Amino acid sequence: xxxxxQQIQPAPLSELKVVxxxxxxxxxxxxxxxxxxxxxxxxxxxxxxxxxxxVWPMAPECFRVVAVMHHSVSDGWSIxxxxxxxxxxxxxKVRGEEPVLAELPYQYADYALWQRQWLQGEVLETQLRYxxxxxxxxxxxxxxxxxxxxxxxxxxxGATLNWTLSKTESETVRCFSEQQDVTVFMxxxxxxxxxxxxxxHQTDIVVGSPIANRHHFxxxxxxGFFVNTLAFRVNLEPTITVREALTQVxxxxxxxxxxxxxxxxxLVDYLQVxxxxxRSPLFQVMLVFQxxxxxxxxxxGLVVTPFKLTTPLAKxxxxxxxxxxxxxxxxxxxxxxxxxxxxxxxxLARHFKILLTALVKSPEHALSHLTL
Length: 372
Description:
This protein is 35% helix and 18% strand. By secondary structure, it is α/β, with parallel strands linked by helices.
């Protein structure tokens, strides 16, 4: 009757596919190709479901299980919640009991409705004005030297390089951050910014970073897409000291956190950022700090081991990701293979480590004096 309304359908049964096990044992290379193909298989957004699970028997009593979720219904914070629910349900089934999960006081639809009603009027204008002031006159691109000419239309083929700091090095970074009254993320952001400035010969740089955006207690136990992307603009003179630079980086990040509610897509539209088919808008590099609640999957009667898988994709020119794993800082660089060779990324990673080490040892030194 002329109105658009939302109809919530009954939850569909998620897809659980068990691959034919007649060829046991399977080769690891074949399995890796199979898993990658499954991860890259598109979802049907009209029909769903938007989560699917596949089981590959690898040998008698040995299986690999992969869950793939569409990002519109989950984020990084959702994964530990799902794992905890999986442990609860599996444990109950093994004991012959009916699984009982805690009732949520709110559902994702409640959050979406609340956000729509709250984020408007003066609240929305205040946040939009902050970002307009913060990003006024910001460079539309980072002139980071690439190995290949930038294609006219952005492609998303990628590769990933991983490395880990020792426990001693990691603890040094943590202690330094504590002494300077900043978070580890802020220290890493300054190191990454300084590295980008050296390579690009720019001082005014915008770095994207995702934020969990779960600052309301009711959202902490919900599976869903809450994460937002913030654009941190850092403009530092190379003559200032590390300590002075950290003070400015801290102010920029805290300001962003205080205005984190505007969806990134809405902000891009509001700022009328010039669109370029060869670049992502506002920023082309990202820093991700995974600070998620740890959840180790323990299932009765099974030995469960997570495995790390990298897909041949790159959402941005460069994405530096860091996370704490058993007291050590683990890093990865996801890079666009249409722009960069592996040799350059290896060199970039070495330079980042050297720069981070110099930064935490010399807070009174000027940024320009930090060695690569």
